[in-house]
Design a protein that fits this description.
Strand content: 25-35%
Shape: elongated
Number of domains: 3
Number of helices: 15
Radius of gyration: 24 Å
CATH topology of the largest domain: Rossmann fold
CATH superfamily of the largest domain: NAD(P)-binding Rossmann-like Domain
Number of strands: 17
CATH class of the largest domain: Alpha Beta
CATH architecture of the largest domain: 3-Layer(aba) Sandwich
Length: 442
């Protein structure tokens, strides 16, 4: 094979943890293939990590290893800084310093981009450098490139995704094994799917970071994480997952963003999806994103949302894009948010009370005449129509039974009022369980 006369791209990596180690491994193992594709030799020349001895034992001897991350962002020999340390304080400082030093940046840090992306992109444009962040959303699934480039001819109408592997693993186990949330969480922690403190995952915060990024790119608006509605899975009960399946649905933690006439929906919450949808059958720790474009219709992107090499696949793909575009002007590059910077619009985010959805309701009611009539009247008075209903027979010696209602689409504030009125009925015990529903068909 003819040897390519390649240029060289010198890379410094901040953090050689799971993703950093995977990135180094993929770059090393596939070096020849990467050069064949880009015409550029991408070389790791410096790594910053607190565990210097471990890193030195892992990487080639010609790689400089330091415990000072700023040594990399200030190194004139480094062309691209790969930020893989996480968080959004030190990482922000490092990224902005690298940009000020005219270095390109690749990051897998969804929190950093969701919270500070607007500032980072402005700095990058001012310094004519690239900030690439494919690995920040859905691991190895190239969803950023799909939204920004592959679907560029479309007016994106909505995006919905299973974008947190930990919660998807937990919900899969709850459904398949009939276990409760707390039991499955412990198993997820034992297997390494969940952190010792799983709050960001199980409360939907991680998914909201990723959804914020996809929404900004889909609709050409600034990052608005602080306005995202976030509801996790900690309150989900196994009985509702069971009833949903009896009715032909699966429960998933979805990130959903939609363009409407009144603003943009930006919400993360447990959602019932018809089991016939492909995304409803994404199980375990896998991720999937459905994007609806006006020209192409619904498209599905599926794969590993985390892990060393799946995420490294996206990091290295970003490095390859930089290698190809390093001599281009900012006008020749794909804009960060898919739209030209002067065309980015500050779209309003709808409060959750104004969102329209169908609903799954479960109520515990006394087994006596007239209860259903009272409930249906409350719903009807608030323009909420019923799509399906299931009443479970009470167990022996019990006088109360579960009633499950599926509604047609209504405004959330109407549902809030209806639930309050239903809970005030003397025949209803406790709180009404409410889970939103999405068809994801059109």
């Amino acid at each position: 094979m003819k040897q390519l006369n390649a240029g060289t791209l010198n890379v410094g990596i901040l953090g050689l943890g799971t993703v950093g180690g995977g990135t180094y491994k993929v770059l090393t193992r596939n070096a020849a293939e990467i050069t064949r594709r880009t015409g550029v030799s991408i070389n790791v020349v410096q790594i910053a990590d607190r565990n210097i001895e471990h890193v030195k034992a892992t990487v080639a001897s010609n790689v400089d290893v330091t415990d000072d991350a700023f040594a990399i962002v200030n190194n004139p020999e480094v062309n691209v800084v790969v930020e893989l340390i996480g968080g959004y304080t030190l990482s922000k400082e490092l990224v902005l310093k690298a940009i000020a030093n005219k270095k390109h940046v690749v990051t897998a840090n969804k929190a950093l981009i969701a919270l500070h992306g607007n500032e980072i992109f402005a700095a990058a444009k001012a310094n004519n450098v690239i900030v690439a962040f494919e690995a920040a959303v859905a691991g190895g699934i190239p969803i950023i490139k799909a939204l920004r480039e592959g679907l560029g001819a479309n007016r994106i109408e909505w995006v919905a995704g299973i974008i947190n592997g930990t919660t998807n693993f937990i919900l899969t186990e709850m459904r398949e094994k009939g276990l409760n949330f707390a039991d499955v969480l412990g198993e997820a922690q034992r297997l390494g799917y969940a952190e010792a403190d799983p709050t960001f995952d199980v409360e939907g915060i991680d998914a909201a970071h990723k959804l914020t990024i996809m929404s900004a790119i889909a609709f050409g608006m600034p990052m608005k994480f602080e306005q995202a509605y976030t509801e996790g899975i900690t309150q989900l009960q196994q009985v509702d997952i069971k009833y949903a399946e009896e009715l032909g649905y699966r429960v998933k933690l979805l990130g959903i963003t939609k363009r409407t006439d009144h603003g943009v929906e930006l919400r993360v919450h447990p959602t019932l999806i018809p089991e016939k949808r492909l995304v409803a059958n994404v199980n375990g720790a896998m991720n999937a994103v459905v994007v609806k474009g006006d020209a192409v219709g619904p498209t599905l992107y599926y794969g590993a949302g985390a892990g060393a090499e799946p995420t490294a696949s996206a990091v290295v793909a970003d490095l390859m894009d930089i290698a190809r575009l390093i001599d281009a002007t900012s006008a020749q590059r794909v804009p960060y948010l898919a739209f030209q910077s002067d065309q980015v619009q500050d779209l309003a985010i709808l409060p959750i009370e104004e969102v329209q959805s169908a609903y799954y309701l479960r109520l515990r009611a006394s087994d006596k005449p007239g209860v259903l009539a009272d409930v249906t009247k409350i719903l009807g008075d608030r323009d909420i129509s019923i799509d399906a209903m299931m009443q479970k027979e009470p167990d022996d010696n019990e006088t109360e039974a579960d009633i499950v209602i599926l509604t047609h689409i209504t405004v959330e504030k109407n549902m809030n009022a209806a639930i309050a009125a239903v809970e005030a009925l003397t025949a209803i015990t406790g709180k009404v369980v409410r889970i939103r529903m999405e068809e994801l068909a059109k």
